[in-house]
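Section 5.1 Outputs to date
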Amino acid sequence: MAALGMTLAAAALYAANCAVCHGPDRLGLSGPALLPENLERLKRPAAVKVIADGRMATRMQGFAGKLSPEEIRAIADWIYTSPALEPQWRMQEIRASRRSFAPARPDSDKPVFDADPLNLFIVVETGDHHATILDGDRFVPLARFPTHYALHGGPKFSPDGRYVYFGSRDGWVSKYDLWNLRMIAEVRAGINMRNIAVSSDGRWVMAANYLPHTLVALDARDLSPVKVIEVRDAKGESSRVSAVYDAAPRQGFVAALKDVKEIWEIPYGPVFGPVRTIETDDYLDDFFFDRGYHNLLGASRGAQTSEVVNLDVRRRIASIDLPGMPHLGSGITWDWNGRTVLATPNLRTGLISIIDTGTWKVMKQIKTLGPGFFLRSHENTPYAWADNFNSPYRDTMQLIDKRTLEVAKSVTPAPGKTAAHVEFTRDGRYALVSVWDMDGAIVVYDAKTLEEIKRLPMNKPSGKYNVYNKITRSDGTSH
């Protein structure tokens, strides 16, 4: 009876403090699912510490000031307890979840507005879970609509830029028609999803799931499910999927796995597969691809060494010692003195690492005000814009001169409020910065003079994404 009472008390603590982010059934919402199979690599003492102190570079807050040590340990014990019923999300559940939306008016075969359809921005407002379609020439909103809770991984576009696809942490994939400014369809591809990718031929959307351990292929036309791929290695070890990417030159998807030391490459065309596996030395859950998608640089949380894997010969070809936690998913490239360099921010250390992608050697470590999350640039600007997201200087953006590899300038859009995630207009003339606050804004700068051009109030705009820069795979933005 005493054990039952402790269990009920732990469940009540979880419901009061954790369910809003991780779901009442622990299947995940804005936060990940908290089930034993999802926590295999997080030891229980580490879980206690995360609950007490929070987790850097995530929305996880610390509860040490609110809950007693005994209550925190009780929650940790609870999340390592298996639920009464094993959660399932199979083809049957995916197919049953799909919804199509009838148009309020007949769809047009050309945009219903006079703005440049390739210079639109999709602004994700996480404060109230909406997205705004922004005209990138006049900087005026064209539409605003609700999204699913906690969009994650950035929206993805069809090859022609007409459609945008969203993925949410709770597994929903949505398709929106930018020409007609309306939602087309949506489907729940998983219980806890990391991100989505759209194939370069426009046929497929692939969803990467933490729970269940699957990759789910959807027909890009109407989001009907086509294939569920269980993610297991040759020994039967199951794995969460950290992310999936479209490797356009290779005509395939590449998946990062969280719990097995493998990379998966899944060719696409009229049919999928077979899956090609590449063994790695470590768990690689953050990737950067070179321009030709021949090589990827991979890192894992907490590792000091990153691996360079050649996807053609399917093995590691180099290792790079990088301090802290490089955020390779926000890495960008540019041409410097006849060579291509990669620059990556760091989530733990105030450094921007500059790497020669020909030799895979670190050329320089540029000191910044503090650890950052995003790095962005454009082919037509001499600067790379870096935030200081995880530091006391989070309100300041630093501009790195891509010619001298030195910090040259800085801007502070809103003193005391976090500034992050820069995106450029298609011509690179203007830079848009997010003020991450419930009473936030998109601040438009002249990318050359740094003069503020316009300020648009937004509800915690976490990111904004330019159609042209994304579909042309600009060196200055993430892919």
